[in-house]
Specification:
9 strands, 12 helices
Length: 247
């Protein structure tokens, strides 16, 4: 896939942004590669780990050269926002591992994941207003959901960058590691913990959490009804009771 390296493992896919010469800027080829990845994970659901391949860079944002030439019809085509929404809606949980800058569209790509792990040198920012546009690929609704409306508005209005320590404090990331070499092991450890759950329960939990408020409690009730009839639920609960009986 152009601009994306894929490593398929037993229960997960590791996708690595691979445009080091452009600081992993998100261009049309990379967007198309992400769509191909999503199609694979929709057809065969697995966990996803998404990270940047270049040392000390996640994604420096959208490709400004391409972005400058886009017109209003391109904006309405939702080139970046559509693929980020597709990543957000993947059936199984996703973890984004960030080292270095995640700016503009790069930050919005990180927000599209379910969970985020970063290094101490990670930086997040939305500089779009200073380029004469808005953060239109998800930040206007995902960022408030992550850090609260007032904080999100401050970051979107000013373009101020957030370092790793602040990102952890305000809930933008789930974990910070000190050294770059610790990043992928930490992300895999988090996915290992996620993978201990029932695959169907994980899918339905993600579906329920991401459902609009008006869908609750109905989506929870239907999802639980499906799970109560699942053989995996009976097996896991039987194993739990047996372990408790033996202890």
């Amino acid at each position: 896939m152009s601009g994306l390296r894929i490593d398929e493992q037993a229960d997960r896919v590791v996708a690595v942004l691979d445009r080091p010469e452009k600081r992993n800027a998100i261009d049309v080829d990379l967007v198309n590669a992400l769509h191909e990845l999503c199609a694979e994970l929709e057809a065969r659901p697995r966990l996803l780990l998404l990270t940047g391949g270049a040392e000390g860079i996640f994604a420096g944002g959208a490709d400004i050269g391409q972005l400058r030439e886009r017109d209003r019809l391109d904006a309405l085509a939702a080139i970046n926002s559509a693929v980020f929404a597709r990543i957000r809606a993947l059936p199984m949980p996703t973890v984004v591992a960030v080292d270095g800058p995640a700016l503009g569209g790069g930050a919005e790509l990180a927000y599209a994941g379910d969970l985020r792990v970063c290094t101490s040198r990670a930086v997040f920012g939305q500089p779009e207003v200073r380029l004469g546009i808005l953060a239109g690929a998800g930040a206007t609704h995902r960022l408030p959901a992550l850090v609260g409306e007032a904080r999100a508005k401050e970051l979107l209005f000013t373009g101020r960058r957030v370092d790793a320590a602040e990102a952890l404090r305000i809930g933008l990331v789930n974990q910070v590691v000190a050294e770059p070499a610790e990043l992928l092991p930490a992300a895999h450890t988090l996915l290992d913990e996620v993978a201990k759950g029932s695959a169907l329960a994980l899918r339905l939990t993600k579906l329920a959490v991401d459902a609009p408020a008006a869908a609750h409690p109905h989506v929870d009730l239907v999802s639980q009804a499906v799970l109560f009839a699942d053989e995996e639920k009976h097996r896991r609960m039987t194993d739990f009771l047996e372990r408790r009986r033996r202890s």
